[in-house]
Amino acid sequence: MSAATAKSSTRPGPPGAHSIVDRFLYEISRYSSTLLLLMVFTVETGVVIFVIRDLRAADSEVQTMYVRSVIGLRGIGGLQYDAQETRRATLYALTTNDSNLQVEYADQSRDADRRVTNGINEYLARARTASEIEVGKRLQSDWVEYLKVRDEVLASILEGSIKEAVDYDLKGGVPSFDRVRQDLEEIKRQYDEQASRQLADVDESSRRSAGRLVGVLCFTLLFASVSIWAIQRARMLSALKLAKLQMDFVASVSHELRTPLAVISASAQNIADGVVQEKDQLTRYGNVIRNHTRQLTELVNQILLFASTREGRTHYVMRPMSIEQLIDSVTHNTREVMREAGFTVDLQIEGDLPPILGDISALSQCLQNLVGNAIKYGGKSGRIALRAFLHKSDGPLSDEICIAVEDHGIGIDTSDLPHIFDPFYRSPAVAAAQIHGTGLGLPLAKSIAEAMGGKIMVVTKLGVGSVFTLHLPALKKGTLQTETISPDLLTRQ
Amino acid sequence: MLRRPPSLIIVLVLLLLGDGSAQKTVRASADVQNSVATDEGIAIVVNQENTVENLSMKDLRSIFLGERSHWGNGRRITLVMMEPGQLERKAILRDIYRMNEADFSRHFLQGLFTGEVFVSPKTLASPVGVRKFIFNVPGAIGYVRASDVDSTIKVVRIDGRLPDDKDYELRMQPHTGTK
């Protein structure tokens, strides 16, 4: 048998909602458009994070390029300057005969050459590519060669052999220093090329980022547009569904009102026209008018009750009650209907059941609706069962009192099962079979059950019958006698 | 780093409080240096690359008089002197040249003119200058106080003795020991 609870229900598709998209939108709209907005927000957040990450990556790339290129070029600039300084100080020593000044220039030259040597070592430590390492080592070797010549030149100058110093410098110093200069130019050229390559990379990366940004923005715009369209369409489908249900309801209620009104009107007309004169006839007509008036009253009451529960205006007076008390009320109120429909009720109430807390009038109405449905859809079996029993809880929840209403009628189709608790819903098969109803009985029963902290479960099989079970939390035994219920439990909206 | 400012303050306070005593200390150390200087040896120093380890007083005198032009390894000898008036120069004139300033000048003028002297001494103002000169010139030879010697130059033994040795002859004050 199929089973469903009052808490799980899906509405049918809206009128004209045939496509998968509409179906999807309709299903989403059931859980409110907030969900859609949340989805939009989530996607937007993801997009923003993506864009920020992309921008940061591009920024980091540019910074890395700047650090490598600018610091590298600055280092090479420093090396070039110090190399020139080494040579300049050496040549300055040629310009004086003062040994003290010559020593000072020699000192300056040596300071500068130390800086160059350190700079070359640093460059080699930073070098990554084979060409960088190669040119770095060549520069190191050429620099050592130049320093050997420079030392000889300095020694000659300090010795006072100026001609010898000049000869040394022209033969060895100039060519070796030229090699050093070429090496430095080569390194500088490599840095320039590297910077150009990195600049091209950054340019490419920037173009990629811009493309991605445009793509992401387009996607965001598209997504937002689709979302807005979806939200509006979902709302429209929801409104259409509501309008159809309301129209169905109006048609159904009109029908339900018109039938008894027509009977009452015809009966009253016959009495007024003097067609009915016999006492027996008058009694029969009176009964007909009374029964249809009662039917009308019940219908109007049910509509008003549903409206009040929907608007949250219903106030329940919560009191402890025994199950027997509740069942008595239900059987008493439905006795007449059952008699007229030719139904008998099979009562099975477990002994020593704990009491429950609830509004007896509301719970009675809830069970009456279930019993009324059992009669209405009970077919020709002519009997229904009303059972009350205790369901012990294994977990931390309290025990439950279960009141089951069982019929042996037409049962409920699996496709209708998820919708039977939706307001105004009427199964197409039921409508086709001319079984009258408003589609409010089960939604009302569900509202009441939930207001009492309970639920309704259904077990059904098409052509075999249905069992609707009302689950209510049980109170501890003895509560009924002492009636010490917390004041906040006594009223519930 | 956080402890530095208090440390600085403490040092400044101590300096201010102990200003008078600090001056006394400086003066006392200067006196000690003078007394040491009077007996301090004068080191004959050469370039680190120079293979010469020991010179006889005779050879040293010959070199300083400019009578030798080259070292054994072929390097030209460059003689380094300090400026006139310096204590070290006075000691060298006394102990090696056995001349006064006038005789010294005359010796080199005359020697260079006649070709008997091959080397003209270079004159430097300070021990630091001497050290740097010798460091830069492989064939240079000069002199500094023993306390001015550092790792950039090499001290040559004279008659097998170093400036710290008891019978070392070249000192700021005339040597009074026996040979």
Describe the protein's architecture and organization.
The complex is a heterodimer of chains A (493) and B (179). By secondary structure, chain A is of the alpha+beta class. The longest helix of chain A has 111 residues. Chain A has two domains: 175 residues, Aspartate receptor, ligand-binding domain (Four Helix Bundle (Hemerythrin (Met), subunit A)), CATH 1.20.120; 178 residues, Heat Shock Protein 90. Chain A contains twelve helices and ten strands. In chain A, helix 2 packs antiparallel against helix 5, helix 3 runs antiparallel to helix 4 and helix 6 crosses helix 10. In chain A, the strands form three sheets. Chain A has a six-stranded mixed sheet with strand order 1-8-9-7-6-4. Chain A has a two-stranded antiparallel ribbon with strand order 2-10. Chain A starts with a strand and ends with a strand. Chain B starts with a helix and ends in a 21-residue tail after the last strand. Chain B is globular and about 40 Å long. With 179 residues, chain B is an alpha/beta fold. Chain B has two domains: 33 residues; 118 residues, D-Maltodextrin-Binding Protein, domain 2. At the A-B interface, helix 3 and helix 4 of A face strand 4 and helix 6 of B.
- Judged by helices, strands and strand pairing, the structural class of chain B is alpha/beta
**Proper CATH architecture of the largest domain in chain B:** 3-Layer(aba) Sandwich
How many helices of chain A? The count is 12
Biggest sheet features of chain A: 6 strands, mixed
Total DSSP E strands of chain A: 10
List the helices and strands and how they pair.
The complex is a heterodimer of chains A (493) and B (179).
Chain A: E1 2-5, H1 20-30, H2 33-92, H3 99-126, H4 130-159, H5 162-272, H6 279-310, E2 316-317, E3 319-321, H7 323-341, E4 344-349, E5 356-358, H8 360-376, E6 383-391, E7 400-407, H9 428-432, H10 441-451, E8 455-461, E9 465-473, H11 479-482, H12 487-490, E10 491-492
Parallel strand pairs in A: 4-6
Antiparallel strand pairs in A: 1-8, 2-10, 3-5, 6-7, 7-9, 8-9
Helix pairs in contact in A: 1-5, 2-3, 2-5, 3-4, 4-5, 5-6, 6-10, 7-8, 8-10
Chain B: H1 4-17, H2 19-39, E1 42-47, E2 54-55, H3 57-64, E3 78-82, H4 87-97, H5 101-114, E4 122-124, H6 127-136, E5 140-145, E6 153-158
Parallel strand pairs in B: 2-6, 3-4, 3-5
Antiparallel strand pairs in B: 1-5, 1-6
